[in-house]
Specification:
By secondary structure, the protein is of the alpha/beta class. It has one domain: Thiamin diphosphate (ThDP)-binding fold, Pyr/PP domains (Rossmann fold), CATH 3.40.50. Helix 2 packs parallel to helix 8 and helix 4 crosses helix 11. The model has no long low-confidence stretch (mean pLDDT about 95). Bound molecules: thiamine diphosphate (TPP).
């Protein structure tokens, strides 16, 4: 029986700066000073990340999820936000959170098991870190819908991994966001693995971006190691959201260079050659080449930048470690409006 084509679709890929640091200025004009700002933040994130991993090894914080390799995806996306927008992170978003003004000592508190790490000052619209996979995605739909109903020029940017895009919450959230034209941007960092599960064993879809199509949403894949390309894609999606044109799904194609968390050993399931290949695509390295071409980078600048970053991180560590411990009752105080009786009894015991 002959069949006719009902619809056909395409999935687009966007890159502004290639691996060699060359920029396609036809796509977008680049402000070199902005590129430098991105580089400085990405360097700060890398220094913080290395310190956090080391501190976990020394027993000074609990389990930590490294951002190594994903700095461009996180900094580029977070810098696209306006103050009034909302950022909804997972456990892997230290980079986005630092770029969006979450104080680093609070990140250490969070990973040190201190609830005060999630209590940001008024005016920082960053949600608490979500550990249950995908649970934060419907929240972004809700916020984005509320922004639309209130007529606010603000949107929700929600982060999640490739693994999360296989869960129901993702599909429900993006479907209803599309129907309600919620001011939401769904930002998937496809770092190729969900713990030890490679992307191709988790979904047969050739891209995560194309999952948008079934919900009538625009889906776009960007080079996740290209900070300027990510920034452009997220800025465009936010503009679209502010003007009532609905949500966008952006897949930042990247790679997790470290372990899943400090409790993992990726050498057990990942070919070191693959890691080597991706190390050559280091998001900081390509930006360095670009900045050098623009006479904005040299060895002395790098040295002083690393020193400045180390000092900021060290100050955050001192603040974290010199803050008196949180009261033990904190572990009971944030989950229930009214504590069940058995927990109320336990709470009395620790007082
Ligand atoms: C609801 C739920 N199921 C299982 C887990 C255990 N878990 C923690 S991380 C993870 C993989 C997530 O992979 P992905 O979404 O790709 O994000 P990534 O860690 O790679 O950034 C799983 C299954 C969890 N945290 N929450």
């Amino acid at each position: 029986m002959p069949r006719k084509t009902l619809a056909s679709f395409k999935v687009e890929y966007q890159q502004l700066m290639n691996e060699k640091g060359d920029v396609d200025e036809k796509v977008a004009a680049i402000d070199p000073e902005f590129a430098k700002r991105c580089y400085e933040l990405m360097t700060l994130v890398r220094v913080f990340d290395a310190k956090a991993v080391a501190m976990q090894r020394q027993g000074r914080i609990g389990t930590y999820a490294s951002v190594l390799g994903q700095e461009a995806a996180q900094v580029g996306s977070a810098l696209a936000l306006q103050e009034s927008d909302y950022l909804l992170p997972t456990y892997r978003e230290a980079g986005a959170l630092i770029a969006r003004d979450s104080p680093m000592h609070q990140l250490l508190q969070y990973f040190g098991g201190d609830e005060r790490g999630s209590a940001y000052e008024e005016g920082i619209n960053n949600f608490p870190i979500a550990i249950p996979i995908s649970s934060q995605i419907p929240h972004a739909t809700g916020i984005g819908w509320a922004m639309r109903l209130k007529g606010h020029k603000a949107a929700a940017l929600v982060y999640f991994g490739d693994g999360a895009s296989s869960r129901g919450d993702f599909h429900e959230a993006i479907n209803i966001a599309a129907v309600m034209k919620a001011n939401a941007v769904f930002f998937c960092q496809n770092n190729q693995y969900a713990i030890s599960l490679p992307r191709e064993r988790q979904t047969l879809a050739e891209s995560i971006a194309q999952k948008a199509i079934s919900y009538g949403v625009e889906g776009l894949q960007v080079d996740g190691n290209d900070v300027l390309g990510v920034h452009k894609a997220v800025s465009d999606a936010l503009q679209k959201a502010y003007t009532g044109k609905g949500p966008t799904l952006i897949e930042a194609y990247t790679f997790r260079l470290g372990d899943h968390t400090t409790s993992d050993d990726a050498k057990k399931y990942r070919d070191p050659k693959l890691v080597e290949q991706w190390q050559k695509r280091d998001p900081l390295a390509r930006l360095r080449v670009y900045l050098r071409q623009k006479m904005l980078w040299d060895e002395d600048y790098e040295k002083s930048l690393l020193e400045r970053c180390a000092k900021k991180v060290e100050d955050a560590v001192v603040r974290y470690e010199s803050t008196p411990a949180a009261p033990l009752t904190d572990m009971f105080d944030y989950h229930y409006a009214q504590l069940p009786q058995n927990l109320a009894e336990q709470r009395r015991e620790v007082m």
